[in-house]
Specification:
- This protein has 204 residues and is an alpha/beta fold.
- The chain has two domains: 125 residues, HAD superfamily/HAD-like (Rossmann fold, 3-Layer(aba) Sandwich), CATH 3.40.50; 68 residues, no CATH class.
- Helices cover 48% and strands 14% of the residues.
- Strands 5-4-1-6-7 form a five-stranded parallel beta sheet, sandwiched between helices.
- Helix 10 links the parallel strand 6 and strand 7.
- Helix 4 runs antiparallel to helix 5.
- The chain is globular and about 55 Å long.
Length: 204
């Protein structure tokens, strides 16, 4: 497999960038982690946020969700207004591996579920993104992982067969979808685990 790897694809949030809505919402639930979890579950935050990642305008998503959960209007608006607080920097160990792979000469790519409105705002804050040969953001194309269509779009864009691509993501659903199309995959848990997976494939 290693000699056939022609493209290495990284997810962003949870793999290269520390993103978690809890980073923001903890300030609204001081000393109440359980209440915060119940709130996130009640409004189905991840499913709601995924629609913005798929291209729905944030203002529209906020308005619709406030209609469904009027008691949480301020908290829903808080994410829209302060979403940058959900990001707390890069995942250093993974970025180091990215730089090492770049030095080895591998084509590197990004495939991330991210709102087309918000990604441009923070892109300049992470210089390692400049190491990537190309980036596909879900919100730009109105497709989202784990939909197979986004993987097919990506493969066509980079003109490389799935079997020659290594896809790295922290979502089990995204990994399963990529595997079903023929990607080699790493279900990301930590930089240390990723390093072992890359060494096993003799990519480092």
């Amino acid at each position: 497999m290693t000699t056939e790897t022609k493209a290495i694809i990284f997810d962003f949030g949870g793999v290269l960038i520390r993103w978690d809505p809890r980073n923001l919402y903890a300030q609204y639930f001081p000393g109440q982690p359980q209440a915060m979890e119940e709130f996130l579950k009640e409004i189905d935050f991840m499913a709601w946020n995924a629609q913005q990642d798929k291209g729905r305008p944030f203002a529209e998503g906020v308005a619709l969700h406030i209609q469904r959960h009027p008691q949480y209007a301020d908290l829903i608006k808080a994410y829209y207004e302060n979403w940058k607080e959900s990001i707390t920097g890069e995942i250093d160990g993974t970025v180091e591996l990215l730089r090492a792979l770049k030095k080895k000469g591998y084509p590197l790519y990004g495939l991330s579920n991210w709102s087309a409105e918000t990604f441009p705002v923070i892109r300049h804050e992470f210089d390692f993104l400049n190491l990537l040969d190309d980036i596909v953001i879900s919100g730009d194309i109105n497709l989202i992982k784990p939909e197979p269509e986004i993987f097919e779009f990506f493969l066509e864009k980079i003109d490389t067969p799935a079997a020659q691509c290594l896809f790295i993501d922290d979502s089990a659903a995204n990994i399963a979808a990529a595997q079903s199309i023929g990607f080699d995959t790493v279900h990301f848990k930590s930089p240390e685990q990723l390093k072992m997976e890359l060494e096993t494939r003799r990519l480092l």
